[in-house]
Amino acid sequence: MTETDGQQGSAAIGIDLGTACSCVGVHRHSGVEIISNEHGGRTTPSYVAFTDTERLVGDAAKNQAARNSANTIFGTKRLIGRRFSDASVLADTKLWPFKVKAGRGDKPMVAANYKRKQKLLAAEEIASMLLAKMKGDAEAYLGAPVANAVVTVPVSFDILQRRATKDALAIAGLNVLGVIHEPVAAAVAYGLHESTEAKNVLVFC
């Protein structure tokens, strides 16, 4: 991943799309730079909220969650690529303050009121809103358009979950250069800052 990898010479970014928080970085000047959001944070809460007037993403969404819990969505990484009838999904829906319904093909759909209208959104759509923010933060930092990305996923993700994650990036306007397992990404990140001396490293996930 370099400053000029991929489509039309655009910068390529790396995104850690997390359940609780997400972050974005870029490889340039022979090193990895983690890109801060508008609040100076190196991670952004994986929250999306809907109100009568606007859509909020990240810190802004999380900060108003207490007064708008039914329309503040988080944890959708646990829904992406799954069926509504999956035991883990049914268990999660009992804990979340927002509603999740079964859609076509048993797809879990998040219910939210946005601009006084009821919306049903797939997990990929929610994730794409967060990814679009990561993309925007990167573009503001680099001063150039970003079209390409590498994204991390848990080792436990199956083909459907990986495909749904790719779909989320596509909706956000990002070309997927690669999907990397989170422990592999952690090992690569560790190696970037270590000497070439041979050693064994354990990565816990």
From TrEMBL:
Gene3D superfamilies: 3.30.420.40. It comes from Lolium multiflorum. GO terms for molecular function: ATP binding; ATP-dependent protein folding chaperone. Keywords: ATP-binding, Nucleotide-binding. The keyword Nucleotide-binding applies. This is Heat shock protein 70. PANTHER family: HEAT SHOCK PROTEIN 70KDA. SUPFAM superfamilies: Actin-like ATPase domain. Coiled coil: none annotated.
